[in-house]
Each structure stands twice: as structure tokens, then as C-alpha cells.
Amino acid sequence: MTEALTAIADAQAMPAGGAQQQEAGNASEAPAELENETEVVEGDEQEGDGEPLEPELIDVEYEGKIHKLPPELKDALLRTADYTRKTQEVAEQRKAVEAKQAEAAAAYQTSQDVIEARAHVINIDNQLKQYEDVNWQQLEQEDPMAAMSHWRQYQQLQQQRGQVAQYLDKTQNELSEKAKQATAGRLRETREFAEKELKGWTPDLDNKITEFATKDLGFTVDGLRDAYTPQVYKTLYLAHIGHLALQKQTAAPKPAQTATQPLNKVTARANPPFAGLDDRLTADEWLKRRNAQVSKKG
Fold first, then answer.
1. Residue boundaries of the structural domains of the chain
2. How many CB atoms lie within 10 A of CB 128?
3. How far is CA 208 from CA 203, 211, 229, 287, in A?
4. pLDDT tens-digit map of 6-51
5. Please, what is the angle between helix 144-197 and helix 71-129, to 10°?
């Protein structure tokens, strides 16, 4: 309490100039502090103005070109490329399936049209058969109007039959040509598969497989041509290899069997005779040996 009153009294006693000087001193000290703070901040900024470190880049191949990318982007780029590749493969497979479906639908429609055309030909032939025994001159004399009507009907039926027969011939030729192209395509695909996937394949081996299939399995050459696909050919290839392996096993000479020798009869060795006089000798043997010793000494 006394110190607070003393401070108030000193403040009241201080002249006006002294107060101004003190305020000026305080004011001069403030910019100095700000300058120090500015220097500290500028110093920090200068320390951080060094050249930034460049990230390490790696080479990544994408669509046939080499790109330099940060390592963390490599996996993302490869995933994108793999996704794109799989998407393209799926699209190609879908197009192939759609093409097969369209081809099958067209073939079915063609077969239906051919069936209907043949049925129409049979119907026309049945109608034409009714005119086989007609005497046109007699009919014309008896009923000229009926003869003219039937003759016109007869001519129309022949014309219709010719048109349908022409359609059938054209369609049959087209189907035969498509069948030839399909067979040639399957054979080409099968050969490319054999050259690439079947170990040791050669044209000579192909002749041997064909000979094996015709002679041992009962196929005909035309039947093979119609049946060949990569899967069927691989089956025949493996069957041919197995057939050769069985032939080698059958033809391999059997090892000569040695005659079994009878086992030698093993007998226990007789105990060696006792030398001299021995208590283990029988009484007769001991007496015999004793007499022999006495005879020698005498």
C-alpha cells in the first residue's frame, strides 16, 4: 500500500518534459524491437530460400515410349495400362462372339430359306406331275378355253420351279464356298497353333500324326480335315506320343534271367578230435590210446 502511494506521488511530481522524454524513449524502443523481429523473419526466409530438391525420377515405359515419372506414379500408370489392355481384350472377344453369333444366325436363316425353297420345289413338282399325261391337242379341240387356262398354269409352274431351282443352286454354291473358307481357316489356325505350342512339331511329324490317326484310330483324311481344331490336333499329338511310348516299352528286350542256383547245404563243422589222453574220451577210446602209447615206449 505504501509503495503504491509513493509511486503515485512520484508520478505527480515528475515534470512534463520528463514524461515526454520517457514516452519518446518508449517510442524509440518499439521500432527497434520491430526491426529485430523483421530481421529474424527475413533471416528465416533466407534460410528457406535454398534450391528445392528435385524428386528422383524413374523410367517407365507406356505405349512404346519411355517416360520419366516419380516412383509413386509407376504403379498407377501400370495399373491403368493393364486395365486398358484387358478392356481392349474383352472388347475384341465380345466382337468375335458377336460376329460368330451373327454368322450363326445368318447360317440358320439361310438353312431355313433353303428348306422352304426345297419344299416349294416339291410342291411345284407335284402340281406339274398332274400335267404329264395331258393331251394338249385333244384338250384344245374339246375345250379351247380350258386348254388355254391349263397351259398358262403349266407354264407359270415351270417358270416358278426354274427360279427356285436357280436360287437353290446359287445358295448351295455360296454355302460350299463358305465351308471351304471355314475349313481353310481352321486348318491354318491349327497349323499355327502346332508350330507355336507343340514341342518338336515339324511337317514330317504332322504326316506321322495323320498316318497314326488314319491307320490306328480309323479316321479318314476328309474326316480329319473337317474335325481339325487346335484342341483336336493337340489330342491326336499327345495320343501319338503315348502310342510311341507303348511301342518302345513292348519292343524293349527283357533282361536275361539267370538260373536259380540251389543253396549249398551248410553243415556244422565236426568237433576236432581230442589229442592224447583226455578225460572226455570214452573208456574204450581212452584204453585204446593208452595201449598205443605203451606199445610205442616198449
1. 99-181, 198-246
2. 15
3. 9, 5, 17, 96
4. 444 454 445 444 444 444 454 444 444 444 544 444 444 444 455 5
5. 150
